[in-house]
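FIELD: query
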Amino acid sequence: MLRRGRGRMTQVLVMVAVVGLGLWLAQRWLIYFPERVLPPLRALDLPTAEPVAFVTTDDLRLEGWFVQPVAAPTGQTVILFNGNAGNRAHRAPLASALARAGHAVFLFDYRGYGGNPGLPSERGLRRDARAALDAVLGRDDVDPARIVYFGESLGTGVAVWLATERPPHALILRSPFTSLVDVGRHHYPVLPVAWLLRDRFTSIDRIIDIATPLLVIAGTADSIVPPESSETLYDAAPEPKWLATIEDADHNDLALLAGREVMTAILRFLDGVRQRD
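FIELD: result
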């Protein structure tokens, strides 16, 4: 009986090891969900958008769209750092609303997204973000002192990291989290997520070093990033900061992406930051 029990335990341990190895090897396919095909730019409500290409430090040529303001320019340029799924075309409603309010917007795709070459990883996304910022700073129609970082979901980890390296005029985080490890633990409590994850996006360790005005947006019904995680990150951030909660909004609901309430909070925040100058 003892030998049989030990044999079963060995089988269980082997199965756990195999599953763990499989998850470790496949984890980036479980984190990043790029959509490679872009619709024609003319099919989107972005009449002032123009194609932009730029090169990363590891020689990847990435593409994006620079959207000029439709209304009287505020002088602010918003760089959007996308989440883990889709591509920049999915952020067209948000960019359109910002442009109609007088803001320039830079939409770009990470490596592997929107037809761009390469495979996504935390290190790769950092390189992409840095290159995107350099592309924006190289434009004659951009005020380098009024650049706003806007991170969505996974992109909040990218935006927070870049903000600690190269501080922006202001920082907006929609559905941010303390770390990807914490989100993984929430969804998969039986797995040793802390051991498995290579890409961690530990914003909680960096947010304390960000002194620029901060707006955190959270949906109270977010089923992907727990609202408590967003609020914990907000609590750890220094002033000046503001928290906007969108009642009953889930992670991918239009109400949280570009709805009237969330756009009111965003535009009021941007206007307030501009008035502080």
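FIELD: remark
The first strand starts at residue 33 and ends at 34.
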